[in-house]
Amino acid sequence: MAHRKRTFLTLIDVLVSAGAAVIIFAAWAKLTHKSYADLMLTIGMWTETAIFLVYAAVEWIKPKRHEEDIQPGEETVTVVGNPALQSMDKMLMEADITPANLKRLGDNFQKLGTTVSQIGEVGDVVKSTSDFSAKTKEATSAMSSLRDAYTTSANT
User: Fold this and answer.
1) Which residue from 20, 17, 8 is spatially nearest to 61, judged by alpha carbons?
2) Which helix (H) or strand (E) segment is 5 a member of?
3) pLDDT tens digit string along 28-56?
4) For helices 37-61 and 8-31, what crossing angle results, to 10°?
5) Which residues of 75-93 are buried (b: 16+ CB within 10 A; e: fewer)?
6) pLDDT in tens, 52-85
7) CA–CA separation, 34 and 24 (whole Å)
8) Looking at residue 64, what DSSP letter applies?
9) What is the DSSP secondary-structure string of 57-99?
């Protein structure tokens, strides 16, 4: 991680955090009825007031991004559009999901559909074969009956 130089803006951020900590501690002291709570709240509120006045002055003098915060070689990125869509685009690029790959996927789904319908036709063929086998057994049985009848008739 690159070391960032400490700037005036960094100092302001530290002061805001410290002032907020004083306010939170003073609020706790007030809730627990400590004797020094009123004084701490007063000091914390004046500190926060001063900090926010400094923030206002800094933003008036140097609005937006400050030159001292820009690191050498750092690019300024402007986000345009929906960040969720940009995140989705990045994921699609990383997964190599391109229009060509999507077309191949669609073609393969069509082939799968054709194969499934052909499997249904194979099922019909199997049923027909089963029906044919049953009819052949019936015919064999009928021929046996006819043979027996002929044999009986010939012997009498």
Assistant:
1) 8
2) none
3) 998 999 999 899 889 888 988 888 888 88
4) 160
5) eeeeeeeeeeeeeeeeeee
6) 888 888 877 876 655 555 666 655 555 567 788 8
7) 14
8) S
9) HHHHHS-SS-GGGPPTTPPP----S-HHHHHHHHHHHHTT--H
Phi-psi region of 133 (alpha: psi -120 to 50; beta: other; left: phi over 0): alpha
The predicted model scores a pTM of: 0.35
Residue 44 contacts residue 22 (beta carbons within 8 Å): yes
Burial class of residue 26, CB neighbours in 10 A (0-12, 13-18, 19+): buried
Query: If you search the block for the tokens 């499934």, which residue do you land on?
Result: 116
Q: Is residue 2 within 8 Å of 73, Cβ to Cβ?
A: no
- The long-range contacts involving 53-60, CB below 8 angstroms and separated by at least 24 positions, are 54/12, 54/15, 55/12, 55/16, 58/8, 58/9, 58/12
Contact predicate 11/68, CB 8 Å: no
CB atoms within 10 A of CB 126: 10
Q: How far apart are CA 3 and CA 70, in angstroms?
A: 13
Query: Residue type at 60?
Result: W
Tokens of 153: 């008739």
